[in-house]
């Protein structure tokens, strides 16, 4: 059975040269800029670890110098406009997360992360994620860090 500790070790093996650690056991995810940098994920959840790794893979060099990559975050309870902005930012990391899940042969489900906010069309968001994942899969050179991690995760799945 795959554990979050396995994901942490895979990340450490794959990205030892970056000065970034993946750390579980937290109440909320957070990226703490370094050195050393730390990617915090919720509890010991594999999917949370993968999701936060996806954000790290998306963030460019300048973003990785800022706590939480310098992004805004509006907590659960977003209105429709805020939720659309959230989904616009989340489509790429969730597409990468879906590819991580695919590499591990585990289920992926989109996260709208807005349980008490206005309802949105989750099927449309899921379709956007699938299209972006297909695009990334077809052009692996466009996301080299994620591709590197995918190869490492495939080794875990075997």
How is this structure best described in words?
With 158 residues, the protein is mostly helical. The chain folds into two domains: 4-70, no CATH class; 80-143, no CATH class. It is built from five helices and three strands; from the N terminus they run H-E-E-E-H-H-H-H. The protein has a three-stranded mixed sheet. Strand 2 and strand 3 form a beta hairpin.
Summarize the topology.
Elements (H helix, E strand, L loop, with lengths): L3 H12 L4 E7 L3 E3 L4 E6 L3 H13 L21 H25 L17 H17 L5 H14 L1
Parallel strand pairs: 1-3
Antiparallel strand pairs: 2-3
Helix pairs in contact: 1-2, 1-5, 2-3, 3-4, 3-5
Number of domains: 2
Main sheet strand line-up = 1-3-2
Q: Flag low-confidence runs.
A: none
Helix content: 40-55%
Tell me the major beta sheet.
Answer: 3 strands, mixed
Mean pLDDT: 94
Give the CA-CA distance, first to last residue.
12 Å
The string of secondary-structure elements, in order, is HEEEHHHH
> Helix count?
5
């Amino acid at each position: 059975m795959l554990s979050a500790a396995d994901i942490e070790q895979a990340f450490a093996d794959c990205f030892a040269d970056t000065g970034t650690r993946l750390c579980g056991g937290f109440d909320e995810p957070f990226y703490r800029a370094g050195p050393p940098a730390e990617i915090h994920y919720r509890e010991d959840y594999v999917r949370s670890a993968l999701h936060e790794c996806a954000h790290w893979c998306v963030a460019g060099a300048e973003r990785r110098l800022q706590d939480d990559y310098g992004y805004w975050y509006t907590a659960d309870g977003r209105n429709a406009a805020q939720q659309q902005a959230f989904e616009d930012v989340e489509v790429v990391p969730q597409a990468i997360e879906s590819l991580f899940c695919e590499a591990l042969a585990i289920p992926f489900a989109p996260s709208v992360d807005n349980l008490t906010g206005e309802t949105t069309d989750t099927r449309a968001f899921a379709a956007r994620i699938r299209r972006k994942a297909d695009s990334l899969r077809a052009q692996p050179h466009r996301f080299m860090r994620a591709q590197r991690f995918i190869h490492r995760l495939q080794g875990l799945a075997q």
